[in-house]
Amino acid sequence: AQSQPWEFNGHTETARMIYGVEDPTPLQYYLGKKTSHGVMRGMQGKKLADELLKEGTVMAVTECDWLIQRFFETKPAIRDVYFVEVRQQVWDHRKLTNSFGRVIEWPFDRFGDDLYREAYSWPLQSDAADLINQQGLIPMHHWLKQGKMYTKILAQVHDSLLFNTCIEEAYDVALAFKGWIAEPIEYPAGPLSVPVTFKIGKTWAGDHEWKRLPSREEFNEKIKEIIGG
């Protein structure tokens, strides 16, 4: 969990473990990523097959069942520890609290798979959203306003912020954002500092990505290249 994005890719590692290969193909990487996301929502084989079909990938339910089975074989603690602990908290308190103190409650909901699926994914999803808001959007808003800067925050997209900026401010914005987001979050197993990646471009999709923030010179040269191209 403490590895940096240029050192370790969790989805690549998941694909390696599922398929037993050192260098997963793009399809294996994609299926490993979709399986990982689906499992954390309590997804079964049929639901995973339906989700893949929506994105143009046809797989039999039995193949999707195998992907999920392999995932749990390689990462049994998710099912045998994390899922069990989440269900126990829901049974005992009918609520969960995330790392930022936000609470979700199910005072009248019937215990069952639908409730548990929501509960499995909520702590992780809500932590990601609260992190980007509390340690990203809010301090960046005040910092930009106090500095009377040209840069504007255009959108919060669950686990990322989209800025409209200029070459004179872009690197300072990236540096400030990285500093606030990197503030450690306290978890039962210890503090976790969430790594940050960066994209720049003329559109929302971005034309270039860095897993690690480069030097100011490299950053600005790439901006000039994109603008000039």
UniProtKB/TrEMBL annotation:
* Pfam families in UniProt: DNA_pol_A
GO MF terms here are: DNA binding; DNA-directed DNA polymerase activity
The biological processes this protein is annotated with in GO are: DNA-templated DNA replication
The record's annotation in InterPro entries points to:
DNA-dir_DNA_pol_A_palm_dom, DNA/RNA_pol_sf, DNA_polymerase_A
Q: Which residue ranges does the record assign to the DNA-directed DNA polymerase family A palm domain?
A: 3-169
What protein name applies here?
A: DNA-directed DNA polymerase family A palm domain-containing protein
Organism of origin: marine sediment metagenome
